[in-house]
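README: folding subset

This subset contains proteins for which both the sequence and a predicted C-alpha cell string are available. Records are stored as plain text. Below is the entry for Ion channel (124 residues), shown exactly as it appears on disk.
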Amino acid sequence: MPKKQKTTNHPFEHRNQQILPFKKFVVRVLKYLLFSFVFILFSLGIGTVGYHHYAHISWVDAFYNASLILTGMGPVNEMPTDNAKLFASFYALFSGIAFLSTVGVIFAPIAHRLLHILHVKEED
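--- output ---
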C-alpha cells in the first residue's frame, strides 16, 4: 500500500516537494503583493485620519505626513498639541514595523523559491 503524502496548511511547499510551477508561483507572488498593498493602504488610512484629527491639518497634508512617516522619511508639519505629538510618535513606531514587515511579506515567496531551487540543485 503506497504511503499517503501529508497535506499541511503551510503556505509554501516542503523541501521534499516539487518546485511550484512558474504560473502558480506568479499567482502566489501576486497574492502576497495584494496583501501588502492592502496593508499599506490601511496603514496610510490610519495615519491620514490620525494626523487630520489630532494635528488639525488638511487631508492632503495629513496624507503627506502619513506617507513620509510610513516610508521612514520623517514628518513635515509641526505637531501643535501633545495629543498630536503622541499620535505621531505611536504612528512612527507602528510605521517602522509595518513597512519593514510588508517588505518581508513581498520578498518571502521569492526568497523561498530561490532557496528551494538551491536546495533541489544541491541534492542532484
